[in-house]
């Protein structure tokens, strides 16, 4: 049987190597780190959100359309149920949370148990695992890859599977350099781009670090007319340098694209209260309760820690009573309560994303086998592909499914 070389011992590479070995191939897996699955071990805050619950069509619907079309064959061949069955047979029991995210049963180091399970599977299938092995070059040209360079050593094989991941969290081994090598070999690629990352703000609010805004939506607008470019419902959290949290991660890629095109702004808007209705409510409150402090009223809508600085910035003293609130002040209060301006975003950091957007162009890859179309013996899988799903287990599932397809030789 052919000798298969897999580069990268993360989610996609481990599955690809195991699958190829179970089909009878001699498989060598090369991993740069001293141990396997380093990014997997920190995924889901160390708990590892392995996949998402639901039928394949629902999982696919979470991805952008072109990515969903590409993923369909591999996801059907190795879906979330297949991943969980495999893990269960290795002793990793899992459960789905109400929001559909699937995790191993709560145990210390549960993400590590997922890595151990895949490592055991690969070993038992006969995969030769070499850690501390960073590939430094690809040798050959289309249509055949001849080998790989590992320091001074040249590694030969018949089929090569690249599963070297994205370019975020480079400390986990994913420096993204393989994408540059592929581009030099004529493979169509999209450059790495930040995604699922926190957003720094041009005017950060370190004093608000740890404060959360809940139940609303983060809105992105740009251009002279403040055109709305995107919105995502969910909580946000102030950090030292900007904002993070579910809605922030999901809107980070669009924010960076908008920012690179010109000035952009972020707002956190209430979805429950419309400005006109709240303005009317504030006017009745002024009549019914004239001595109520404007600050007390605003605290019904915003966390306490934000209220005083916001009132000060708006030129409204914290001792101001509703009866003394002028009409422009009333509009300011209603504006803050319904759509809190967060200001301009700064460069979204590629390194801090849960994934990196960009990667090998999907049109250059056969979605059933992950083979590069112009090559006879080169396959790519996992985050190295131009795939970036939302938070929720989708990215690991994409890595498992495309890894399985790549290993099906
Ligand atoms: C903090 C964080 C939390 C996350 N949480 C989740 C989650 O809960 N659920 C989810 O679905 N997704 C999550 N993700 C995303 C998910 O971890 C990735 O999408 C997934 O690991 C990609 O799998 P992969 O096999 O393609 O790449 P990786 O798992 O990154 O594996 C690639 C491997 O290739 C190795 N490598 C790279 N270059 C070379 C080279 N030149 N030579 C040899 N080896 C090399 C790297 O060392 C690495 O081990 C998270 C990501 C981060 C950063």
What does this structure look like?
This protein has 409 residues and is α+β, with helices and mostly antiparallel strands. It has 3 domains: 3-195 and 350-407, FAD/NAD(P)-binding domain (3-Layer(bba) Sandwich), CATH 3.50.50; 199-266, no CATH class; 275-342, Orthogonal Bundle (Helicase, Ruva Protein, domain 3). 35% of the residues lie in helices and 23% in strands. The chain has 13 helices and 21 strands. It has helices at residues 11-22, 38-42, 56-61, 65-77, 80-89, 110-125, 177-184, 246-261, 275-288, 294-299, 304-313, 327-338, 394-407, and strands spanning 3-7, 26-30, 51-52, 94-96, 101-104, 128-130, 135-141, 144-150, 153-156, 159-162, 189-195, 199-200, 212-213, 217-222, 227-233, 236-238, 242-244, 264-269, 339-343, 355-360, 378-380. The strands form 6 sheets. The chain has a 5-stranded parallel beta sheet with strand order 6-2-1-10-21, with helices on one face. A hairpin with a 2-residue loop joins strand 7 and strand 8 (144-150). Helix 1 (11-22) packs parallel to helix 13 (394-407), helix 4 packs across helix 13 (394-407) and helix 9 (275-288) packs across helix 12 (327-338). The longest helix has 16 residues, at 110-125. The protein is elongated, with a radius of gyration of 25 Å. The termini are close together. Residues 7-13, 30-33, 38-40, 42-44, 48-49, 134-135, 163-165, 168-169, 173-174, 178, 354-355, 382-383, 393-396, 399 line the site of flavin-adenine dinucleotide.
């Amino acid at each position: 049987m052919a000798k298969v070389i897999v580069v990268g011992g993360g989610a996609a590479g481990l599955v690809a190597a195991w699958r190829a070995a179970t089909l009878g191939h001699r498989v060598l897996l090369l991993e740069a780190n001293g141990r396997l699955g380093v990014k997997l071990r920190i995924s889901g805050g160390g708990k590892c959100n392995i996949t998402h619950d639901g039928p394949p069509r629902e999982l696919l619907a979470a991805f952008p359309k072109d990515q969903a079309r590409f993923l369909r064959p591999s996801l059907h061949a190795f879906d979330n149920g297949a991943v969980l069955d495999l893990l269960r047979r290795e002793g990793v029991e899992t459960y789905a949370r109400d929001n559909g995210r699937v995790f191993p049963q709560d145990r210390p180091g549960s993400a590590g148990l997922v890595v151990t399970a895949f490592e055991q599977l690969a070993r038992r299938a006969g995969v030769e695992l070499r850690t501390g092995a960073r590939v430094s070059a690809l040798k050959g040209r289309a249509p055949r890859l001849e080998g790989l360079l590992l320091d001074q050593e040249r590694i030969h094989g018949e089929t090569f599977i690249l599963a070297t991941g994205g370019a975020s969290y480079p400390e986990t081994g994913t420096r993204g350099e393989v994408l540059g090598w592929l581009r030099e070999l004529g493979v169509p690629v999209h450059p790495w781009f930040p995604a699922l990352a926190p957003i720094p703000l041009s005017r950060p609010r370190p004093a608000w670090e740890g404060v959360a805004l809940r139940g609303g939506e983060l809105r992105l607008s740009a251009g002279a007319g403040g055109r709305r470019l995107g919105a995502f419902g969910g909580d946000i959290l102030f950090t030292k340098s900007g904002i993070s949290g579910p809605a922030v991660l999901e809107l980070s890629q669009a924010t960076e694209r908008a920012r690179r095109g010109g000035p952009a702004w972020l707002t956190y808007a209430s979805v429950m209260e419309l400005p006109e209705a709240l303005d009317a409510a504030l006017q009745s409150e002024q009549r019914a309760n004239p001595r109520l402090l404007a600050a007390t009223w605003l605290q019904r809508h915003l966390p306490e820690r934000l209220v005083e600085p916001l009132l000060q910035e708006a030129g409204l003293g914290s001792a101001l009573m509703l009866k003394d609130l002028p009409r422009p002040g009333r509009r300011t209060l209603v504006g803050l309560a319904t759509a809190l301006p967060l200001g301009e975003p700064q460069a979204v950091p590629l390194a801090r994303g849960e994934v990196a957007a960009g990667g090998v162009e999907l049109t250059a890859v056969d979605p059933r086998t992950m083979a590069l179309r112009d090559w006879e013996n080169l396959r790519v899988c996992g985050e190295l592909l131009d795939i970036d799903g939302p938070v929720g287990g989708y990215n690991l599932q994409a890595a498992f499914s495309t890894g399985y397809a790549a290993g099906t030789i």
